[in-house]
Design brief:
By secondary structure, this protein is an alpha+beta fold. The protein is built from six helices and five strands; from the N terminus they run H-E-H-E-E-H-E-H-H-H-E.
């Protein structure tokens, strides 16, 4: 009888410890990604319905070398499927639900860059103070930009947006056609938009 009670007590303590660890993990997360999955899973050949998509911008001293190193480092995170940096300041991640904004921020800080506070979610006072100060020092307007979108010169073979009267379907079809064109014309796309770095897991 005593052995049985002892076993039950051990199991209870173990389950309680798991609960505490889970709670601590939840509490430790101070920064969260915004969810842009809907309408942005357009590279369908490597993604499925479980993949999440987010965008965020960077502040800090950023150049092409930073972008290349950051891409390689973020891809080392378990759960990251693809990571893209364009204009040397805007990032896009395809990932599963295990990837946290905290883990990505560690990679950013290694390159002396950080999240633009306007592009992530946080209610932590210390984080808000840190990111707000960094944005004042290096606002997005001072960061390097390749070619503004209003100055892009579209090649003749760039796909057109075809309006069939169904906006949702038209947008999806255009996104697929555009991504197919980008995949087949990477150099033309870089020339049109500016510097871009993208990494995918094999």
């Amino acid at each position: 009888m005593m052995k049985t009670l002892g076993s039950i007590l051990i199991i209870f303590i173990f389950l309680l410890s798991l609960t505490n660890l889970s709670a601590q993990s939840s509490v430790s997360q101070k920064i969260f990604f915004k969810d842009y999955t809907k309408g942005n899973t357009d590279i369908s050949e490597i993604y499925d319905n479980s993949v999440l998509v987010t965008f965020f911008q960077l502040v800090g001293s950023i150049d092409t070398l930073n972008s290349e190193i950051l891409t390689a480092e973020v891809l080392k995170l378990k759960g990251v499927i693809a990571f893209k940096v364009f204009y040397n300041r805007i990032c896009k991640i395809w990932m599963d639900s295990t990837v946290t904004a905290e883990s990505v921020r560690e990679k950013l800080l290694q390159q002396n860059i950080d999240f633009d506070i306007k592009t992530i979610e946080t209610s932590d006072a210390q984080v808000i103070s840190e990111l707000s100060e960094k944005k004042l020092i290096t606002p997005a307007s001072t960061l390097p930009v390749a070619i503004p979108s209003n100055e892009w010169i579209y090649p003749d073979n760039f796909p057109d947006y075809i309006d069939t009267g169904n906006p949702q379907l038209d947008t999806e079809n255009f996104a697929k056609a555009k991504q197919e064109w980008i995949n087949n014309n990477p150099e033309a796309y870089k020339k049109m938009t500016g510097v871009e770095h993208i990494g995918k897991r094999n």
